[in-house]
Write a structure and sequence with these properties.
41% of the residues lie in helices and 27% in strands. The protein is α+β, with helices and mostly antiparallel strands. It has a single domain, classed as Inhibitor of vertebrate lysozyme, Ivy. The model is unreliable at 4-25 (pLDDT under 50).
């Protein structure tokens, strides 16, 4: 019986070590996030509220068809978030959109990057805007 208790204890310790590492290294993309109802609703509200959205971004907002990369973790005001992005097909270098959702997916903020011009979406506060601006070039 003693070896089985030791194995159970070792597994419990291992789960405590591995789980936080996995949570901090998301591999999902914006497309996958937008399959979740709360994220999808926040996304549509974010894009629909912008008259300055480029045609390629409006197209992605409707179809979810475009180049995306895995999100990466950031901490904003001591809360873990993930920044996602999408870019214009065949012109990623000059046309990117970065987005961050609240952890529950109910609110989103974005940053449209066209060359040197950056346009915030969703009226992000200073910490969220900093996280979005830090995403440029990653």
């Amino acid at each position: 019986m003693f070896p089985s208790r030791l194995i159970i204890a070792a597994c419990a310790v291992l789960m405590c070590v591995v789980a936080p590492v996995h949570a901090a290294a998301p591999s999902d993309t914006l497309y996958e996030q937008l399959q979740k109802p709360a994220h999808k609703a926040a996304w549509h509200k974010l894009i629909a509220g912008q008259k300055r959205a480029d045609p390629w971004l409006k197209h992605y907002a409707r179809t979810f068809d475009g180049p995306v990369a895995p999100g990466y973790p950031v901490t904003i005001d001591s809360v873990d978030h993930v920044v996602y992005n999408v870019c214009k097909t065949h012109d990623c270098g000059s046309n990117m959109f970065h987005v961050v959702f609240t952890p529950d997916g109910k609110k989103a903020w974005g940053l449209l990057v066209n060359g040197d011009r950056q346009t915030p979406f969703g009226n992000p506060d200073a910490p969220h805007l900093k996280a979005l601006r830090d995403a440029v070039g990653k």
